[in-house]
Design brief:
TY-Chap_M; elongated; six-stranded antiparallel β-sheet; TY-Chap central domain-containing protein
Length: 141
């Protein structure tokens, strides 16, 4: 196991998260009922991303349109956060470059808050553009 992965696992566990390595070697953990994944790229050791995957399932063309409008606005307004589709699901991420991946430690809490805030803004925007508000179907649990 790479040193930065053990350091990050230890940090998350000290912060009260039940963090573990998934089958891809990424760090997975839950916060407030949502599943986060901290991913690294072997071909680009300075790059890392904190994912909040599968937060909303798109089932119709109308939902896709509303989601794209909401995502475009969030991507334009928010720093660091990206929100996008993967097949028929909405994902959020914070992507950063570091000289040393252990630099995530002091930024993880802020990154999780940013993703959570973006998810709230997404739900509000999707509901505001819907004649009858729908609940965000959280698949990520």
């Amino acid at each position: 196991m790479q040193d930065h992965i053990q350091t990050l696992l230890d940090h998350l566990q000290r912060e009260g998260f039940s963090a573990h390595l998934d089958e891809d070697g990424d760090i997975a953990f839950k916060r407030e009922g949502l599943q986060y994944v901290l991913c690294f790229d072997e071909s680009d050791p300075g790059y890392g991303k904190l994912l909040l995957p599968n937060v909303y399932q798109i089932e119709t063309q109308d939902e896709l349109h509303r989601a794209l409008v909401a995502m475009d606005e969030i991507n334009r307004q928010m720093k660091v956060v990206k929100i996008y589709t993967v097949r028929d699901h909405v994902w959020l991420t914070v992507e950063l470059w570091f000289e040393d991946q252990t630099c995530w430690c002091p930024l993880l809490a802020r990154s999780m808050r940013a993703l959570s805030h973006a998810l709230t803004k997404f739900a509000e925007a999707v509901n505001a553009s819907t004649p009858k508000p729908v609940s965000v179907r959280r698949l990520n649990a």
